Predict the structure.
Amino acid sequence: MEFFNTKISGSGKFNPEKIMTNEDLTKMVDTSDEWIVQRTGIKERRIADLDKGEYPSGMAYYAAKDAIEKAGLEPNDIDMILFSITLPDMLFPSTASQLQDKLGITTHCACLDINAACTGWVYGLTLGNSLIQTGAYKNVLVVGTEMTSAFNNWEDRNSCILFGDGSGAVVLSRAEATEECAIVDSVLSCDSSKADTLILYKGGSKAPITHEVLNNKEQYVTMDGQVVFKNAVKTMAKHCATLLKRNNLTTNDIDWFIPHQANLRIIETTAKLLNYPMEKVICNVEKYANTSSASIPIALTEAINDGRIKRGQTLLFAAFGAGLTSGAVLIKF
Ligand code: UT7
């Protein structure tokens, strides 16, 4: 059986216009700009506006359109949409299928939502790569889009200061034999023993929304920040080290490290554990906060657009999130 390499042929992003600063949050919960900046590095975040159609598939439309154009393709060239989303447009049909409609794809390409929380885009990259490697598909659109403002409890200062809304997308395409691009390797994991440390308990089939749920504000996310923090650093560093070791690489071989943008301290601690210089870490958490599974494709697109990331470079992605999921992907861009 013939195997093919996968390249990122295009990428795009969308950030809602509406900015919510730390100062704005001080009017909602007992917090301060100083505390948020010191503990997270976050200065502001973007908030989706439903009146402008900025629900998940609406935001994803702009990111996906940009990625498809940059890849030099038409929407109908896409064989499959993998859509990482934590709180979808609606419970069904999939948000991927909503996006298919918005993009005007008439080929009835395959559509699938992935829920691996903040790690979802990294999961999608790994699945999309497998489909291209085996020759099943030529072009797979991998989207990470989140409307975290919809599950954020704006009265809980432990979590609401962390999140923001946005969308990022890449097109994965079959690389020509002459091209050096490849998704070289990846690791994915989930530790469900810690699932209750980052969870949205109510609103699914097991515990539907009732007046009591709404009164108790149980339709929102709850989080044990310290457990999530420690687990994030440990698993991201472990997965990155695994990828380096089994591909006979050192951190010197990595041109850019693009971690999930959750908290500057998590990013710095992970880089330190890997003995990797912060100058080569792509970081934009101060502007957008934690956009969950959209954060890596947004950061990637920004760095490609401003010329930091160039063809031929070696990139390392790492993410963590509810589940508790984690993953890392090594790329020859
Ligand atoms: O994609 C995954 C999403 N989740 C994460 O990435 C979460 C990872 N965890 C974190 O980022 C950090 O744990 C937080 C930023 C959430 C919290 O930082 P921390 O350094 O772990 O603070 P803490 O929870 O230990 O709280 C320290 C103090 C507490 O007060 P006392 O008990 O020392 O008096 C909190 O009540 O800070 C207080 N605190 C706040 N103060 C001002 C907690 N949140 C706030 C706040 N403003 N927003």
